[in-house]
Amino acid sequence: MKKNKSILLLSLALASQIFVSCEDSIDKTNSPIPYESIGGYENSDDIAPTHLVSKFSFDGTIEDSKGAITGGTGTNVSYETGVKGTAYKGSTTSFIAYNNVANSVVNLKNITVSMWIKTDPHTGGAQSLYMLPKKTDFWGNIFTLIEGTGPATTMLMKNHIQRDVTPSIPWSGQFIEHGGANVLANMFGAWKHVVWSYNGTSSTYSLYIDGQKVVLPTSISKRYASDPATGGGPFGELASSEVSKFIIGGYQQHLGAPWGNPDGWMLNYTGLMDEFRIYDSALTDPEVTALYKLEKDKR
């Protein structure tokens, strides 16, 4: 009886050692499981990395992690939970003014601007998300505005680019307005990923919402395909000029000299903004979709 009991105890001890050994082996083999790639990318910064010229993540700081837009001073800036980390929180008096803009931004020929925004309807004018100013032009070089018009579920957005030629192009021919039949629906009260691009080679404008390309009429997508100042030829590449400073959440008129005071309709952005990026190329459809999914996944 004692012999059988000893054999049983020995068997249990051996089984316990084998179990522990197998458990250790499993832990070493299976830890940790890597993220599944999205569009062939592991991280949002893996998308067109050589074309990313400026990036603001607003993780408790107003700094551009790429160092292209520097010398920033925030006015009434605060932060709130964003898509990744924290986000810039705007108000009726908030904006960020930057004094220095590198050539990588000044000399953009093509462009993609990407950002997350969360905002509510407003009245009384147009809120500016950002602007690349121009010293001698009322409208600056590049901007995106949200107009305070239309039903509460829609967003009337304007994007503006600059191309200097002789004779000069009327400013009204230099911005895209998503209004009327092309007003953007269901844009308020939740985080939305907004991307627009301009391809200087094809003179083509594109807009994406939450990773999906918006179907636009040729009157918008090919708005720059015919330039009256060049006898009907395409507008071609961007050509910003007399660049001075950069602003997030306001207009160049909020920066003081050499601009005058802002008009009453020129409003500061009052919503949230996160992961603001500028590329020197027009991203492809798959790249924009991957960027949206990766940032949404906090990668």
TrEMBL record:
<dbReference type="Pfam" id="PF13385">
    <property type="entry name" value="Laminin_G_3"/>
</dbReference>
<protein>
    <recommendedName>
        <fullName>LamG-like jellyroll fold domain-containing protein</fullName>
    </recommendedName>
</protein>
<keyword id="KW-0732">Signal</keyword>
<dbReference type="InterPro" id="IPR013320">
    <property type="entry name" value="ConA-like_dom_sf"/>
</dbReference>
<feature type="signal peptide">
    <location>
        <begin position="1"/>
        <end position="20"/>
    </location>
</feature>
